[in-house]
Amino acid sequence: MNLADCSSHSATARLLHFGSPGAIYLRRFVGSLHVGRCGSNPTHVKTLRLRSNPPKTLTVTAAMASEAEVAASAKIIDGKMVAKEIRDEITTEVSRMKDAIGVVPGLAVMLIGERKDSATYVRNKKKACESVGINSFEVRLPEDSAETEVLKFISDFNDDPAVHGILVQLPLPKHMNEQNILNAVSIEKDVDGFHPLNIGRLAMRGREPSFVPCTPKGCIELLHRYGFQIKGKKAVVIGRSNIVGMPAALLLQVLREDATVTIVHSRTQNPEQIVKEADIVISAVGQPDMVRGTWLKPGAVVIDVGINPVEDATCPRGYRLVGDVCYEEARKVVSAITPVPGGVGPMTIAMLLSNTLSSAKRIHNFQ
């Protein structure tokens, strides 16, 4: 930046040029800086009062970033990077457990039907298990399978000592009762965290659930690992699904997080006004770009759970993935935001692996 000495009575202002290192050196040399406006164009002209003897006032005459440009440097919350760190930690622990007691954690995944997206999720989970050394067991059943057949496999996995976690890939075919099937999974192996007893314990202060649902757990883990304070902050969760919205709201309130939480849903009046008050926003509604930049409080932290395909002829697949939050608008307002893809998605699988490891440790009393 260029600094002009406003205290000089010379007809020609003396200009000093500083790049970023120079600006850092200036601060170290003169002490604290006070930034103020000078002239009619606050975007490009500002003043700095320096703690020197005698005091000097310098004018910044270089083209400075506008407020929008500064805000555009919102921190990207990199879910891929954090998920890799967690997988590395899990790999170390799985190896330590195997060496110490000869036990390898095992995850059983059940896929009923032929949905391509579900098949992709199951394939990714299997690869993730292999990458950290967790054994994976897979059952694929046709769309028209009887519910009793699914329940029989669950019962077998409940009794299998090599299996420490059971995951039934949702959604299920329409003729099956999802509640009956999820309730059949042993609470000790419910690594998805959907068993009603786990959700009930999550909702009660002083009770610890055996497992926390993976996606909400991943959202909170991102906030922790990036050092964002939750305690005492205003948080808004957009969406109230059993999979993400409700457990995310519970997590923010209990289990030592202590945020003040509001849930915004399809019947909420003036949702943008409520979201605007939030220091932390977690959105999980499955509506592309629903949350606009004008909804968000300057400096807020945004965790975008949504993964929504939108048509885009310029993409090889004919579509691209976007979140619930309009990313280009939001990043000019907020202090930090998760990208889509590459934000919450990788964390969901990382938390599934973490829950499976925790289950194996608990079952075998391994510290």
UniProtKB/TrEMBL annotation:
GO terms for molecular function: methenyltetrahydrofolate cyclohydrolase activity; methylenetetrahydrofolate dehydrogenase (NADP+) activity. It catalyses: (6R)-5,10-methylene-5,6,7,8-tetrahydrofolate + NADP(+) = (6R)-5,10-methenyltetrahydrofolate + NADPH; (6R)-5,10-methenyltetrahydrofolate + H2O = (6R)-10-formyltetrahydrofolate + H(+). One of its GO terms (cellular component) is cytosol. It comes from the Eukaryota. Pfam families: THF_DHG_CYH, THF_DHG_CYH_C. Keywords: Hydrolase, Multifunctional enzyme, NADP, One-carbon metabolism, Oxidoreductase, Photorespiration. Residues 77-192 form the Tetrahydrofolate dehydrogenase/cyclohydrolase catalytic domain. Residues 213-362 form the Tetrahydrofolate dehydrogenase/cyclohydrolase NAD(P)-binding domain. GO terms for biological process: photorespiration; tetrahydrofolate interconversion. Pathway: One-carbon metabolism; tetrahydrofolate interconversion. NCBIfam families: PRK14186.1 (NF010783). Catalyzes the oxidation of 5,10-methylenetetrahydrofolate to 5,10-methenyltetrahydrofolate and then the hydrolysis of 5,10-methenyltetrahydrofolate to 10-formyltetrahydrofolate. Homodimer. Belongs to the tetrahydrofolate dehydrogenase/cyclohydrolase family. This is Methenyltetrahydrofolate cyclohydrolase. It comes from Linum tenue.
